[in-house]
Every structure is written in structure tokens, then in C-alpha cells.
Amino acid sequence: MPTQNNQQEKELPQVLILRTTFVFQLYEKEFHKKFKVLKAWESPLPIESFIESEAQNVEAIFCSGLTPITKDIISQLPLLKIVVTESTGLEHIDMGECKRKGIAVTYAGSVYAEDVADMAIGLVIDVLRKISMADRFIRNGLWPSGVQFPMGSKVGGKRVGIVGLGNIGLMIARRLEGFGCTISYNSRKKKGSTPYKFYTDVVEMASDNDVLIVCCSLTEQTRHIINNEVLRALGKDGVLINVGRGAIINEDDLVECLIEGEIAGVGLDVFEHEPNVPKQLFTMENVVMTPHRAAFTKEGFFDVFQLVMGNLEAFFSDKPLLTPVPVPIANE
Amino acid sequence: MPTQNNQQEKELPQVLILRTTFVFQLYEKEFHKKFKVLKAWESPLPIESFIESEAQNVEAIFCSGLTPITKDIISQLPLLKIVVTESTGLEHIDMGECKRKGIAVTYAGSVYAEDVADMAIGLVIDVLRKISMADRFIRNGLWPSGVQFPMGSKVGGKRVGIVGLGNIGLMIARRLEGFGCTISYNSRKKKGSTPYKFYTDVVEMASDNDVLIVCCSLTEQTRHIINNEVLRALGKDGVLINVGRGAIINEDDLVECLIEGEIAGVGLDVFEHEPNVPKQLFTMENVVMTPHRAAFTKEGFFDVFQLVMGNLEAFFSDKPLLTPVPVPIANE
């Protein structure tokens, strides 16, 4: 452990945070009990100068998925041994550089998966049964006016195609089985362990299904995988849900298909240019939108907080990390 | 079968409809293919005069849950032998009078139950995960403003108390098990066939649970069963869902508890004075409202249409009715 200047904090190991995170905002007090936290974002210095003057002895960085841990940052921290991220995604971390330098990376594993799956189901029901639209209808005082509120569509019996059958996709599938839906999926490869029909081709899956749920990760292979062709194959009664990443869908194509009535409705937790959402969606009744909150619950963040603390404590006491990034995921 | 004056329609048996219904609006053409429909609501005559001049030979009435079939109406139809309602509820039919006169009653049975259960789950997820609120947040352009959208609460792990464990209640319970919720229930009597904890007392159940879902029928025993005491027992983190009937909740008590922050949120498909909703709810962020649409899906109404036609055809061809009201339900 690095030596400390401050007498009061000499026992506490240093953790560098470049930019505040959700977990840190919620549990800052707990962090201060166990670590000397170096808060780069509160310093008037530019990050590079802050690191140079304050963080040369840092062995551990804690970050969210919104803070890039680049090769540059890593090169400025000669003693860096671990990156702890509160995210499941690793797109913000230069994993190759970490591997090359022997820097461990821990992540949130599948902690958020249940919450994301729940949100996906919530969006499916909301779009099919027009819940947010109905809430708007009532708040606008339209119920007593005699305007007929349109009929929704039944969840049970729907054929649902899942794009990406990882942890989240499997949890979505299991929940939907309880509603009487028929599940199929598209994925890089067929999963031997599931009873669901596998499609190699997303267009074919879209044309065979009533609902598409996107919950794969964003890679060069999945970017814009949901395009005009897929949406038109899904069809005029089809519903699209996205709890993955915005850029998996070609948003221009989506807006066009919605304007032209080529699909029936969408539920979107993620967007291509967050926090900016295409304005055309704001007035559409068949669209339900949430601001990238599928993984956000108080209970989920408490679980992640415990993982983050557990990983940092394990690192500083030379114990096995709780959720190191497994090599196959890091190499994906 | 009654004799008919109109030569063209002489083969078609008469069905009297006092006021149009959802199923009739959707499938009117199909009705005309098989029946001579007497549309009382389209006549300039008052109902009594219409019945006296046009419907004296009527053996079958078809109605929705919104058309009272009173003792008076029944007494004006000397040949009435069957009441076919598209509803599951029977509150609008004088069942005692039907029984006394040997008039059969058919209803929608459990056709709507799945859709109501789905809506209940949709409302649970929507309230806990703030979906409609999030949709409003985005449509109001608040996401890029930097205003922090509040965290939702996890569905999994919630203790859910179901008020009324009939068809709908059981379907709700099964769905919620898939989300990792713990189920208990209150009902007139303990059900031997379920693994769920039984409460005789709603206040006790409310204080032991995070979410209460009301899906019992409205009777003198259940009217205002959800009152101030129950809501305060449910508590400041508690969520209330109602897909039963509005008057099961004391709406004044509910509004008061919401204003005072005594409960965390509500999802309401039904209201005490429909289509009027307490205006105070219109501006509350923790309230999700739908205009009594839990049972309304295109697919569900098609199923009910088929039951209605099947019951009428069975009656006119002396075959067993598809969904006669069972005596225990009618006597409840």
C-alpha cells in the first residue's frame, strides 16, 4: 500500500474516482469510512494535472460506465493495479491495455440483469396494453369526454423474439413464459441449454414474431442490426422493445417506420444519441420511453455498492476479487 | 322460436339488445348474419314502449355489464328465457329474479382473467419502475436538462398481498412468482390448494407487505375494504394496485394518504365514480391510471364474441350452454 501524507487517513488505502458515479453519490459516506477517496472531478485542476500531482501512488480506480478509462489515463498511473467499475458493460475501459499491464478489472456482473429484464417486461405490457397512453388520456381529462380509448393487445399468445440471449435475455424469456408467450432468439451462436427456437437471421426472426426485444450488447456486429429491413419484417402489428444500447437500432430507420405506420409500437429505454431523443417520438401515442433507467433501482444499486466495496476491500487485503471480469467477456 | 313478420329474416331468431356493447360494436356484422337484432337504443321510443311494441316475442337478451337487467325489464318480457352478458361480473343482472323465473344467464367466465392479470403486473412494474413518469419526463424534454430522474424500486423480492384470490388473483400470483416476489392473500376463506400465506385480516396483510393488489369482486363485504387504516398499514414505501372495482377502495382515504405521503404509489384501473377521477391525482407523479381497461384487448373481445355467439346459438338450437353462470357464483 502507498504511504500517506495525511496523518488522520494514513490507514486508509487510496481510491481514485475521476468523475462521480451513481453508487458513489448514494453511498459516499461509506466510501470515506474505508478509503481515502481522491475526487478528481472536484479539483480545479485538469484531470492530467490532478493525476500527476495527487494520484501518483494510486493503485485502484473506481468508475461508472460513463467514465472512459483510456490508455492515456492508464499510462499516467504507474502503480495502477485494479479498475473497479459499477457497470456491467466494459466499453469505457481499454481492456487490452489493462490486460497488457496486468491490471485487474472488476464489474457488476449480472447484478443489474433482473432489473433490466423487469423493465423489458414492463415496456412490453405498457406498449401492448397502452398504459402510459391511458395515463396521459386520464390526466388530460379525456375519460368523461366520451372519447373512446383504443383497445390494447393481449400479452398472452404473443410470439416474442429476443435479440441476445445472455443473462438478461434468459430472464426476460422466463418471465414471458409465465404470460403464455412463445419465445425464440437470435444470438451469435445457438445455446444448447434452452428450449427456444434459434434464428441465425434477425430479419427472419422479425418476420416470424409479434414482438422483438433487444437486449444484446453493442458491438461492431450488433450496431444498427435493427434497421429498416428488420422493422418492415416485424410488420404493422409488430412491437419493438430496446433495453440494450441505443445504437443497436438505426434510429432514423425506426423513426421513419413509426411515421409511416410500418410497426405498431415501441418501448425504448435507450437511444442512439442520449440524452437526446428524436423529437418526432414525443407526440407519438404508440411510443413508451424511459431515460436509460432499466438497470436503475435502489435495491440494485445497493447490491452493486456491496460488490464495489467487496472488490476494493478484497484487492487491498490480497483476497480473491468478488467479480473479476472473466477473460472471455473481456475479449469479446 | 317466435314467428317473424319480416319475410327476409324469418329464419333468424330474435336477440334484444337494450344498449350497444363493446362486443356488438366490434362484431355487429356477425350478429346480423345469425340473428334478428332488436336495437332498443336506436329506437326513438322509450325502452318500455320499444319492448312493448317490438320485443314481446323475445326469448334472448344480450347485454354488457353496463346495462341493468332489472326485475322491471324482465317482467316486461314474458317469453324471456336467457340473458347473455359479455361481462364476467353479474352486478347488473337481477339474478334472483332470473332464478325465480327459470331464466338462464351466461357470462364471460374467466375469459378476461388473463388480460386483467397482465394489466395488474403492468401497473406493478409501471409504478415501481416509474415507467409512465419516465415517459412524461422524456416527452417534456427534461432528459437533456440535467434534472436527475429518480430511481425506481426493484420488483424482485417484493412481498405482494393479493386481495381476492380467484381466477385473476391466481394468475397474478403465478406471474409475480416469475419475478421473484413473495405472495400472500386475503380472501373470504383459506384456499387449500395454494402455497401462499393466508390472512383473514387485510390490515395485517397490508402491514406485512410491500404491494397490495386488489382484484376481488365488489360486494357489500368488500366495499371500502381498503381504507385509511389499511393504507397506513401498507405504509410509506407501500404500493397499491386496483384492477377490481373502484368502490373497493375508499377513494377519499386514498387521495388523503397520497397527499400526505402515507403510501408510496398507486396503479389504478378502476375508480369509485367512473369516468370521474379525483383531480388531485392528475398531477401526482407516483400515480398510474388507466380508464377501466384491464379486461380490454382485441384478442380478449374476440374470445368473448365467440362465447356470446356460442351461447346464443346453443340456446336457439337446444344445446348445452357454453358458459352458464354456475349457481354458487350467482348466489354470492
Automatic annotation (TrEMBL), chains A, B:
Domain of life: Eukaryota
Gene3D superfamilies from the UniProt entry: NAD(P)-binding Rossmann-like Domain
Keyword NADP carried by entry: yes
InterPro entries in alphabetical order: D-isomer_2-hydroxyacid_DH, D-isomer_2_OHA_DH_cat_dom, D-isomer_DH_NAD-bd, NAD(P)-bd_dom_sf
Pfam families assigned: 2-Hacid_dh, 2-Hacid_dh_C
Domain D-isomer specific 2-hydroxyacid dehydrogenase NAD-binding intervals: 121-294
Family: Belongs to the D-isomer specific 2-hydroxyacid dehydrogenase family.
PANTHER family per record: 2-HYDROXYACID DEHYDROGENASE-RELATED, D-ISOMER SPECIFIC 2-HYDROXYACID DEHYDROGENASE FAMILY PROTEIN-RELATED
Protein name: Dehydrogenase
